[in-house]
């Protein structure tokens, strides 16, 4: 069973993630944590030196973190994007699509089940933040 | 109609396997009900009063004969011999076993169907004009755009956990047959002065607890930016839609609280950004889809004459068929509203018959309407009599389209765990009352809609006459609304006053229609007279 | 009396707690007193029931159990508009019990 799933080659940053408010006071922080109600756009001017963004999912049914993740990736953020909290097996695939490349679920997951969940979909209907080629592009080249 | 290619089929097949795995984990105790519930809902599976209920998506209401046959087979194999066609152009089965649901979904996938996103806080099945491709007044066929939206919204990774459910309707004619302005997003395909096709976006409509008519937030979105604009609308909603109160979580509340201008400003800002992201399918994809919706090979030179010597047939002809864009053809509507029957229900045998009729007489196609009837969209006028005879023999020959007998009713407290009162018995009593008194024909067009709770699946806000079932200290009580409309002149009904018991509401409806008969002017429908004379005359007659 | 009801996890059928098992017949329901939450948690945990909840009911002179709310009486019998699909298809008066 694994408690931190990472799909990155680099070493995890050791700094504790600070809240968005704290981050704006100390914009040299390398790790920041987003809550569902936070406006992620305030981070965009400071992304160059950020190495870890944690997106908290206090309950899995609150989907704001998916938009936060895509907004960060669309702004060019290339550091670690980690989903933390109530992160469940059946949400991993969509989270990967939205740009998350690390997961710190409250309950540890079986790596085999994780792999099966991530291998579930043969294709994708839409482009997202994972670089997958959408079906319409496969159809038309 | 649209056919899957190997990509579409692979996605639906994968979904079946995913749900099979999820169901197994639930039955083994690896998923709690709280964790499983959104997963089963995203596959259309509810827990209702008597059993699990499965809602199958019928994209923009279109079915082939083989698909209708498959729906009938499923009703026999997994359910208790019938299905219920819904106000969102879908079909529901009322007696499904969880352990059999994955096999049912596999049977659906074999005929290019699914139950994906027919529930849950995600983008639901896209609805459209049930006369698309047959109506004379359309600017363009809306279905290719609806299919494009279906593919974009299916498994959209960002929008599976929205604040609340999200319903999109697409039309392409001036006459609105899909209640477009009562959707989270209503899209009307239009042609601009330069002759180009684009989309007018109406956002933030809906019925339910707080009914609202959607304002237009943009008159013209170029057709090659349709998906990008939709994504911008959704992203703003996903970020800022209320999540603190389930009853205020629909996009209509966000648009209302922000104001149309501010919501639009945020959408436009997000849209400008998303245009840089390359998320729009190319026009070639729209063209590929559109080829599936080309006109069927209509015969030319057909006569428009129909032998009306059978009076029963003549009645049905006048009431249940509509003009077709092609000479010699008609649109035929099969009423699922027999007098005293259950609105929208069809038996296995009836579904098989409708499938056969679609295949033999309507280029293998039928449609489900949001009024819970079935359309044979392209029928030769010369075949209408034969069709009517077969419908009559199967109990499907009711000649009552758009009349007071053609009642929309949700399943209500007979089936639904959300309901406060039963809807179906009220519909049955009203249709019997008007059939018995013989007033149905005289009343002409009269849209009567019944919901068993405030969620308004029976569209009571949009009925010329609407009925809302409420729970008054443990007994069923019914409120009467007048003056709603879902058409081009969308309006929301007003409550007349104190509610009634089951028999009382039937009397009240009859008294309202008596006011109309007494006060109407030449050519006026019930709704027209109501709008002219106002609610007071009706209140006086109803409460006296 | 307080009785406990839910749906069978696998089939979805409406069930009533009999004191030692679940029955599809409301007449079999027993008074659970203030034990409802404990029984519900245990039975749900064992996956013998889905979404259990306690309701008020009365036992009548004939030994029948009548849930206080119409919703649960409809659950107990079946849809009033399809007597053929209820638990008492041969009894034309069964629907009156609901109302």
Side by side, the strands of the main sheet of chain C go 3-2-1-4-5
The CATH architecture classification of chain A is 3-Layer(aba) Sandwich
Please state the structural category of chain A.
alpha/beta
Number of helices of chain C: 3
Helix percent of chain C reads 10-25%
The strands making up the biggest β-sheet of chain A line up spatially as: 1-6-5-4-3-2
Number of strands of chain C: 5
Distance, first to last CA of chain C = 20 Å
Q: What is the N-to-C succession of helices and strands of chain C?
A: EEEHEEHH
Largest interface pair: A-B, 34 and 38 residues
Q: Given the C-alpha coordinates, what overall shape of chain C results? A: globular
Q: Cα-atom Rg of chain C, whole angstroms?
A: 13 Å
Describe the structure.
The complex is a heterotrimer of chains A (141), B (544) and C (99). With 141 residues, chain A is an alpha/beta fold. Chain A has five helices and six strands; from the N terminus they run ββαββαβαβαα. In chain A, strands 1-6-5-4-3-2 form a six-stranded mixed beta sheet. In chain A, helix 2 links the parallel strand 4 and strand 5. Chain A is globular, with a radius of gyration of 15 Å. The N and C termini of chain A lie far apart (41 Å). The model of chain A has no long low-confidence stretch (mean pLDDT 95). In chain B, 37% of the residues lie in helices and 17% in strands. In chain B, the strands form four sheets. Chain B has a five-stranded antiparallel beta sheet with strand order 1-2-5-4-13. In chain B, helix 6 crosses helix 8. Chain C is α+β, with helices and mostly antiparallel strands and 99 residues long. Chain C contains three helices and five strands; from the N terminus they run βββαββαα. The relative contact order of chain C is 0.19. The chains are: A alpha/beta (141), B alpha+beta (544), C alpha+beta (99). Chains in contact: A-B, B-C. The interface between A and B is large, with 34 and 38 residues.
Please specify the SSE layout and strand pairing:
The complex is a heterotrimer of chains A (141), B (544) and C (99).
Chain A: E1 5-6, E2 18-19, H1 20-25, E3 31-34, E4 52-57, H2 64-74, E5 80-85, H3 92-97, E6 102-105, H4 111-118, H5 135-140
Parallel strand pairs in A: 2-3, 3-4, 4-5, 5-6
Antiparallel strand pairs in A: 1-6
Chain B: H1 6-27, H2 33-41, E1 45-47, E2 52-56, E3 62-64, H3 65-77, E4 82-85, E5 91-96, H4 101-110, E6 127-128, H5 143-153, E7 168-171, E8 185-191, E9 197-203, E10 216-222, H6 226-240, H7 251-258, H8 260-274, H9 283-291, H10 311-320, E11 321-323, E12 329-334, E13 345-347, H11 348-361, E14 365-368, E15 374-380, H12 384-393, E16 408-409, H13 424-437, H14 440-443, E17 448-451, E18 465-472, E19 475-482, E20 494-495, H15 502-519, H16 526-533, H17 535-543
Parallel strand pairs in B: 6-7, 7-8, 16-17, 17-18
Antiparallel strand pairs in B: 1-2, 2-5, 3-14, 4-5, 4-13, 8-9, 9-10, 11-12, 12-15, 14-15, 18-19, 19-20
Helix pairs in contact in B: 1-2, 1-4, 3-11, 5-9, 6-8, 7-8, 13-15, 15-16, 15-17
Chain C: E1 2-7, E2 14-17, E3 22-23, H1 36-45, E4 50-59, E5 65-67, H2 70-77, H3 94-98
Antiparallel strand pairs in C: 1-2, 1-4, 2-3, 4-5
